[in-house]
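[Discussion] Sanity-checking designs against the backbone

I'm trying to build intuition for which residues belong where. Below is a structure token string of 151 positions. I'd appreciate it if someone posts a full sequence so I can compare it with mine line by line.
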């Protein structure tokens, strides 16, 4: 008859911190009755960190919404994504990239002046935002919409 394994004792539990520490200090890790020797590998940790950085950074850098919002937000000193989310995203979802109750705004062929007028005056079913937004906010939203790519 095969003997069953004992549950891990308190001092034998393996935490993430203990595992990471063992990578840096070349200590053995005990798990139940078996020992796993983890060799020092700063190079391994560096490679894992580099992969995580290179995988996450291009995804953020290639986001057209973030690129458009950063350019316009810096110019007008506004959080354009927050402004769009509070005023426009009820109908224009995905920060203007997705058609929902309102049309997709990315790739809009109107000029910035036409977009500003449309935001200010509205057009059924879109309401007017003339009394809700400053001219600076209207201009920033128009430039943000114009900066969204068609694809």
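Best answer:
Here's mine. Compare freely.
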């Amino acid at each position: 008859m095969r003997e069953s394994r004992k549950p891990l004792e308190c001092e034998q539990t393996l935490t993430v911190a203990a595992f990471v520490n063992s990578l840096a200090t070349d200590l053995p890790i005990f798990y139940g009755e078996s020992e796993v020797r983890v060799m020092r590998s700063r190079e391994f940790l560096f490679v894992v960190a580099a992969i995580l950085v290179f995988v996450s950074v291009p995804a953020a850098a290639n986001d057209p919404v973030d690129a458009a919002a950063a350019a316009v937000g810096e110019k007008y000193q506004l959080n354009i994504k927050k402004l769009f989310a509070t005023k426009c995203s009820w109908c224009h979802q995905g920060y203007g990239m997705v058609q929902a109750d309102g049309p997709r705004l990315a790739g809009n062929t109107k000029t910035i002046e036409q977009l500003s007028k449309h935001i200010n005056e509205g057009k059924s079913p879109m309401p007017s935002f003339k009394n809700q937004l400053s001219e600076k906010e209207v201009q920033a939203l128009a430039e943000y919409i114009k900066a969204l790519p068609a694809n």
